[in-house]
Design a protein that fits this description.
Helix content: 25-40%
Number of helices: 14
CATH architecture of the largest domain: 3-Layer(aba) Sandwich
Order of helices and strands: EHEEHHEHHHEHEHEEHEHEHEHHHEEEE
Oligomer: single chain
Shape: globular
Number of strands: 15
Largest sheet: 10 strands, mixed
CATH class of the largest domain: Alpha Beta
CATH topology of the largest domain: Peroxisomal Thiolase, Chain A, domain 1
Strand order of the largest sheet: 5-4-6-8-1-9-15-14-10-11
CATH superfamily of the largest domain: Thiolase/Chalcone synthase
Radius of gyration: 20 Å
Number of domains: 2
Low-confidence stretches: none
Length: 416
C-alpha cells in the first residue's frame, strides 16, 4: 500500500533522542540490549526504603540551567533532553525552523504525583502550614507540563499536548504526531513518551499492595517477562522522542530516514480497571495491520508490552497467538526485561530499541527468561540471546495500559 501513498502522506522518523536506564542515546541503548546489560538497580523511595528501579543517568544541564531544573520537573528535564537530542540528531538547522509549525506530542502515564507528594512531605514538617507550599506547584502539576516545558525551552509556538494514555502513551504520542502532520496542523512533530514515575513512592506502594511489585536478590534479574518465576513490575523512568516529518519534507532537505510509520491503532478493553483483555489486544494489532495494508505474515518482529505480571503476560501471549499463530520466522521480544517498565516512555523506548534491527538484522533478546511459563508459551519469543533474522522489514510495537487502553504502532524499514 505504501508504494501508492504520496510522499506528503508518508510519515517518517528523522531524528531520535532518548534516555533509558541503560543508555542515553540510541547507539548506547542498542549496544546494551544486544549485549544483555540490564539497567535495573537498587533505589530508595520515601516510606518504603529499598526497592528496585530503572534509573536514568543523563546530563540534565546539557540543555537547561540549574535554575530551570529546580523550577521545573523531572519529567520536563527528561522531555527537554530527549527533544533536544532528537532535533540535533535530525540534522535540522533549528534556527531556521518556523517554530509556529512545530508541534510537541508527549505521552505520559501520570503527571503531578511527584510534586504533590513532595509538597505534602515538606509542609508536614511545618504543621501543614500552606505558607511553605511552593508557588511553582501549579505549573509543575498541570497535565500539559512535560510538553509545555519543551516548548518553553525550545521556543516552540505551535501546539503542544501531553497525552495521558497510561502505559500505552509512548505509542499514543507517535500516533498523535503523525495525525497532526496528516492534518497539516504542523510541519514537524516532536513526539514520543516520557516518565518520571520512580520519583513517586505511591506507584511503588500501589504495586506492592497489589502483589505486583518485583523483587529479587539480584536487581538485574528482577524483571522477568514470560518466566514462570516472574513476580511483578520493576518501575522505571525514561524518555523516547522522535522527530516526525512528511517524507516529502525529509527528501527536500536530504534527511536521514530511520523508519516509516505505516500502521497504528488505539482501542479499549472496557472490561476492567487493571486486568487486560486478550481479544481487544488482538483486535488492536489486527486494526494496525489493516491500516498498514499488511497481513500478520509481513511482520518480522513483535515488540511485546509484557510487564512480568502473571495475568498480563498470559493475556498478551494469547493475543499474539491469535494474530500470528505459530508462524516460524517471527521474533517476539521484550525490552522491559532490561530496563523495567518505563510507563509513559515504555512504548517509545521499546520501539526505538528494536528500530536498529532494520540495519543489523538482529532481534534483541528477552533476558531473565530461564523457564517459560507454559501459560505463555509463544514459540517465537527470543529468549536470553539475540536472534539473527533473515530480513527485517516490519516491526509491530505493542503498548497497553490500565483502564484497558491498547496501542499499536507498525514501523517499516525505509524504502523510497
Amino acid at each position: 500500500m505504501q508504494a501508492h501513498t504520496p510522499d506528503h502522506k508518508r510519515i517518517v522518523i528523522t531524528g531520535i533522542g532518548l534516555t533509558s536506564p541503560n543508555g542515553n542515546n540510541l547507539a548506547e541503548f542498542r549496544a546494551n540490549l544486544l549485549e544483555g546489560r540490564s539497567g535495573v538497580v537498587p533505589f530508595q523511595t520515601r516510606y518504603m526504603g529499598d526497592v528496585l528501579a530503572g534509573v536514568c543517568n543523563f546530563d540534565e544541564l546539557r540543555y537547561q540551567k540549574r535554575k530551570e531544573v529546580r523550577r521545573g520537573t523531572r519529567a520536563g528535564s527528561i522531555s527537554i533532553y530527549c527533544a533536544r537530542e532528537a532535533i540535533q540528531n535530525s540534522g535540522l538547522d533549528w534556527s531556521q525552523v518556523p517554530k509556529d509549525r512545530v508541534g510537541v506530542y508527549l505521552g505520559i502515564t501520570e503527571q503531578g504525583n511527584v510534586e504533590t507528594e513532595n509538597e505534602i512531605f515538606e509542609i508536614s514538617k511545618f504543621n501543614y502550614d500552606t505558607k511553605v507550599w511552593s508557588h511553582h506547584h501549579n505549573p509543575r502539576t498541570v497535565a500539559n507540563n512535560p510538553a509545555g516545558e519543551v516548548t518553553l525551552n525550545m521556543g516552540i509556538t505551535g501546539p503542544h499536548y501531553t497525552l495521558g494514555a497510561a502505559c500505552a502513551a509512548g505509542n499514543a504520542g507517535f500516533i498523535q504526531g503523525m495525525q497532526m502532520l496528516w492534518l497539516d496542523e504542523v510541519d514537524l512533530a516532536i513526539a514520543g513518551g516520557v516518565s518520571e514515575s520512580i520519583h513517586t513512592f505511591g506507584i511503588f506502594a500501589s504495586f506492592k499492595s497489589q502483589g505486583a511489585l518485583a523483587h529479587h536478590t539480584d536487581p538485574t534479574k528482577a524483571c522477568r517477562p514470560f518466566d514462570v518465576n516472574r513476580n511483578g513490575i520493576v518501575v522505571a523512568e525514561g524518555g523516547g522522542i522522535c522527530v516526525l516529518e512528511r517524507l516529502s519534507a525529509a527528501k527536500a532537505r536530504g534527511a536521514k530516514v530511520y523508519a516509516e510509520i505505516v500502521g497504528h491503532a488505539i482501542n479499549t478493553d472496557a472490561t476492567d480497571f487493571v486486568l487486560p483483555h486478550a481479544n481487544r489486544q488482538a483486535e488492536a494489532m489486527q486494526l494496525a495491520l489493516k491500516r498498514a495494508g499488511l497481513t500478520a505474515d509481513d511482520i518480522d518482529i513483535v515488540s511485546s508490552h509484557a510487564t512480568a505480571t502473571t495475568q498480563g503476560d498470559i493475556e498478551e501471549c494469547l493475543a499474539i497467538k491469535k494474530v500470528f499463530g505459530d508462524r516460524p520466522g517471527l521474533a517476539v521480544n521484550n525490552t522491559k526485561s532490561f530496563i523495567g517498565h518505563a510507563m509513559g516512555a515504555a512504548g517509545a523506548l521499546e520501539m526505538l530499541g528494536n528500530l536498529p534491527a532494520f540495519q543489523d538484522g538482529i532481534a534483541h533478546a528477552t533476558i531473565n527468561l530461564d523457564e517459560m511459563d507454559p501459560a505463555c508459551g509463544v514459540p517465537q519469543i527470543v529468549a536470553n540471546r539475540p536472534r539473527q533474522m533473515e530480513s527485517v522489514r516490519y516491526i509491530l510495537n505493542n503498548s497497553f495500559g490500565m483502564l484497558g487502553i491498547n496501542s499499536v504502532v507498525i514501523i517499516k524499514r525505509f524504502e523510497d
